[in-house]
UniProtKB/TrEMBL annotation:
Keywords: Methyltransferase, Transferase. One of its GO terms (biological process) is methylation. InterPro entries: Methyltransf_11, SAM-dependent_MTases_sf. PANTHER family: 2-METHOXY-6-POLYPRENYL-1,4-BENZOQUINOL METHYLASE, MITOCHONDRIAL, METHYLTRANSFERASE. The keyword Protein transport does not apply. GO terms for molecular function: methyltransferase activity. It comes from Kribbella ginsengisoli. It holds the Pfam family Methyltransf_11. The keyword Chloroplast does not apply. It comes from the Bacteria. Residues 55-149 form the Methyltransferase type domain. This is Class I SAM-dependent methyltransferase.
Length: 275
């Protein structure tokens, strides 16, 4: 799959293959599990009901799917990183939750049209390189009158700053728009058009809590797959400089005064009705 950008073809298939390799590096759930509260708030904002069908897109280790299953919804998670799916299955088994996990691409979901009462994603689908195709897929699999619920990091928040910092060391592929645009209301409206009526667009903050800025840097270098993969390509001197840059991001947004990190990261919680 490719598209034209300024006369140059963008090979989204090749880009996704590299992304997948990144997410399958490290141990992303060590980071992703800490974000569970975002999913709990999202399914509450979407008013998930017992017995509803819920799809968690780019589910990773299944935060939305597990949150929905706790509310007795029939939950399914989809992701292309098989190691993350396996951890999702382990989490569901440990919590005795009947969640189905499927291997699949957010831009080509392996489910029929108009299947789900709620289609959601927490900081997942935003990383699909072809934003429009991913948005089209979310609409395709949501029942008319059903809901689409998304939590996406904003361009101006801490994670937007983190990604810009990482981009200085590994520039993103040409033709791929920043993932954090999903956290911009105007951009979101452009992606979905009149197919979705947004009932709630709320800016929230997730608090990253670590022992220190250096601990934050170390944790992301060890476990956040794309950052782990990048760190493995750097020389010893560059790795030290990269580690310091990551720590500085945590330090910039930190509001703790006791030496630990309580860094506030803004995200957009969006809940809409599929027309």
């Amino acid at each position: 799959m490719s598209t034209e950008v300024s006369g140059t073809a963008v090979d989204f298939g090749a880009i996704k293959a590299k992304q997948r390799a990144g997410w399958e590096t490290g141990d992303y759930p060590r980071v992703g599990n800490t974000l569970q509260i975002i999913a709990e708030l999202l399914v509450e904002a979407a008013d998930v009901r017992a017995g509803q069908t819920v799809l968690d897109v780019a589910c990773g280790q299944g935060n939305v799917a597990l949150a929905a299953a706790r509310r007795f919804a029939d939950a399914t998670g989809v992701d292309y990183a098989v190691n993350l799916l396996e951890q999702g299955r382990e989490r569901a088994e440990a919590e005795h939750l009947p969640v189905i996990f499927l291997e699949g691409d957010a831009e080509e979901l392996p489910v029929p049209d108009s299947t789900f009462d709620l289609v959601g994603s927490t900081v997942g689908v935003m990383f699909a390189p072809d934003h429009q195709r991913a948005a089209d897929e979310l609409c395709r699999v949501t029942k008319p009158g059903g809901k689409i619920a998304l939590a996406s990091w904003t361009p101006t928040g801490m994670i937007g700053d983190l990604f810009r910092t990482v981009g200085k060391w590994a520039p993103p592929p040409a033709g791929v728009k920043p993932a954090t645009l999903w956290g911009d209301e105007e951009y979101l409206n452009g992606l979905f058009g009149d197919r979705v009526e947004w009932a709630g667009l709320t800016k929230r903050s997730f608090v990253f809590r670590y022992h220190s800025p250096e601990h934050f840097s170390e944790w992301f270098r060890l476990y956040y797959g794309p950052i782990t993969k990048l760190a493995g390509t750097l020389s010893e001197a560059d790795l030290a400089a990269f580690a310091a840059d990551l720590a500085e991001v945590a330090r910039k947004f930190n509001q703790a005064e006791d030496g630990t990190v309580a860094a506030y990261a803004e995200y957009l919680e969006a809940v809409g009705i599929r027309r």
